[in-house]
Amino acid sequence: MHQPTYREALKAAWVLVWHNTSLWLLGLLSVLFAGSFGLGNFLAHLMVNMGAYKGVWLVSWGIPTLPIIKPSIILGLSWLLGLAIVIGIAIIIISVVAKTSLLVAVADYYKNKTAPKLEKIWNAGLKYFWKILTIEVARKILLAAIAIIFGVVWYYLSPAGTILNYVVGSLALIAAILLGWFVSAVTIFTSGYVVIDGKPLLKSLKKAFQLFKNHMLVSFEISVILTILDLLLVIGFVLIFYFSFMPTIFIWLIAGALGNAALAVFGAILGFVLLIIFITIFGAIYNTFYTSVWMYLFMKMHHEGIVSRVLHHMARWFK
User: Are the C-beta atoms of 153 and 172 separated by less than 8 Å?
Assistant: First the structure.
């Protein structure tokens, strides 16, 4: 039997994304809360937590110094808080349904080579809403816990700066990344069993653990590849930032020559608008692509199995 390769997974995912632009909307909406299963955000959390605990004392120092707030201000803040909660709940619901719909659409495309209509997959997304929401919340809690624990370890190790501390800190970082890969892989496998096979949540989780166990090295290998893409994404965002504000710089030069402040403000607004548009499109495509890669591999592991490319090449070397 022909064993699929990572190149085939990446190619299949790109073909799906490029020829089904309607799925970009689902990719965009799912980013709002139920983002990609990659580790880009997780690695960012790890880096932030390296120094986050150094500022905890500022918060504890500042709280007692807050002035007494008037009842009218408290009422206004409560109203704003309630509005923010309602908007947040709406965003979470839309994002989770979009993520679920995207999983359904990707699975259906790999089965039938045609993407179903958005109305059909949106209804399917509503069907699995609570299960995917539970998986998504659990994923975020676990990844946040890993990042916080790493941040605590880094905080207590960084002041001394000894070689041993650097070694322990490096091992802690590696352990955090491996745990993050594990959580990401198991959650996408669980989602796959829920959406594709229609299995109960706990049974899907059990089967996801077994699938990960049977394809542990493969799961880590694809995680490495996708994490590298995550890091390259940072470079992509930097380029997007510069391209977005190139018209702004040109407008500012004209505004400076004419002494027109309004034109300068317009240039700044134009730059931010272009930045938001480019990041929105780029993020929607990337999130859709990321989900498609994982689902392709899941379906191949689920039905056929995938051989580790590392072990495959090592076996060739020792022949």
Answer: yes
Q: Compute CA distances 259 → 246, 254, 269, whole Å.
A: 20, 8, 18
* Largest Cα span, the chain: 79
The CA-CA-CA angle for residues 277, 278, 283, to 5°, reads 100
Q: Has residue 173 got a pLDDT over 50? A: yes
Q: What is the pLDDT of residues 87-131, one digit of tens each?
A: 888 888 888 888 888 888 888 888 777 776 777 778 777 888 888
More confident residue, 48 or 168: 168
Look at the alpha carbons of 140, 142, 148, 150 in this order and tell me if their dihedral is positive or negative.
Answer: negative
Q: Who has greater pLDDT, 121 or 57?
A: 121
pTM of the model: 0.75
CB distance 293 to 222 below 8 Å: yes
φ, ψ dihedrals at 167, nearest 5°: -65, -50
- 300-313 per-residue burial string, b: 16 or more CB within 10 A, e: under 16: bbbeeebebbeeee
Contact 30, 243 (CB under 8 A): no
**What pLDDT, on the 0 to 100 scale, is given for residue 315?**
42
Instruction: Give me the pLDDT at residue 190, please.
Output: 92
Distance CA 312, CA 156 (A): 41
Average pLDDT for 68-72: 65
